[in-house]
Specification:
alpha+beta, globular, eight-stranded antiparallel sheet, disordered N terminus, single chain, seven-stranded antiparallel sheet
């Protein structure tokens, strides 16, 4: 696993420091040891949003579909991916990047990921983060700086009926205060995971964003409801003791 991760990171760094980062938005897919590395074609719509409507690629080892990808210069990234791991357990990596309007500090960041796993044969299914505790990581640049809103733990399930489906998430982080000082002009989201093979399927939808401003403060009514809930909980505990 370590050697595969090293190759993934090397390929991604080449993309980030090369012409793709300078010229506009991009999407990259890497399978296993980078013998398969693809630039996913994207286009700019009339509203200035970079998109992938539908991209499919298939080999004897995996089947890939990227759909509804949006890279927004305002700035945010939203994506949907689905992978069928046809052979032995494999490692998959995606990197989405886009130029953004210059965004300085203070700023607010948020991210989320949700989806599901399908156990094709019923022998168990697992999706494992690679190189850290989370499947989805987000950075701004330059220089590339983690945003502090990485999300998506691993998921594993034992043997069950063939075709068993398992919900994944939703997991979210933020809104929280983002990195300083900026101004940041580039946004990336990477999704890297090992899948259990044997025809198992992972389908994921994710989102990340950064915008200038400060973390919203709860409205007085929300604070009142929260304090009321705490009081009710305390009263319930007192009744149990008596």
């Amino acid at each position: 696993m370590k050697s595969k991760l090293a190759v993934l990171v090397t390929v991604w760094m080449l993309v980030l420091t090369g012409s793709a980062a300078a010229s506009g938005a991009f999407a990259t897919f890497v399978f296993e040891n980078a013998l398969t590395s693809l630039e996913i074609p994207i286009y700019e719509d009339p509203n200035g949003i970079w998109r992938v409507d539908n991209f499919e690629y298939e080999t004897s080892e995996f089947s890939l579909r990227v759909h509804d990808l949006a890279l927004d210069p305002d700035p945010s990234i939203a994506y949907g991916i689905a992978v069928v791991d046809l052979g032995a357990p494999s490692v998959f990596g995606f990197l989405f990047g886009t130029p953004i309007v210059p965004t300085g500090a203070p700023n607010v960041v948020t991210s989320s990921i949700v989806g599901g796993l399908t156990d094709f044969t019923g022998d168990g299914v697992a999706m494992t983060p690679i190189g850290g505790p989370f499947i989805q990581t987000s950075e701004v640049g330059f220089p590339m700086t983690n945003m502090g809103v990485d999300v998506g733990p691993g998921l594993a399930a034992g043997p069950a009926s063939p075709g068993a489906f398992y919900n994944y998430g939703a997991y979210s982080s933020g809104p929280i205060t983002g990195p300083a000082p900026g101004p940041w002009t580039f946004l990336t989201t990477s999704v890297t995971f090992g899948l259990s093979g044997g025809g198992d399927i992972a389908a994921l939808t994710g989102f990340t964003s950064i915008e200038e401003g400060t973390v919203p403060v709860p409205e007085p009514a929300s604070l009142l409801l929260l304090s009321g809930g705490v009081a009710a909980l305390a009263a319930a505990k007192r009744r149990k003791r008596s």
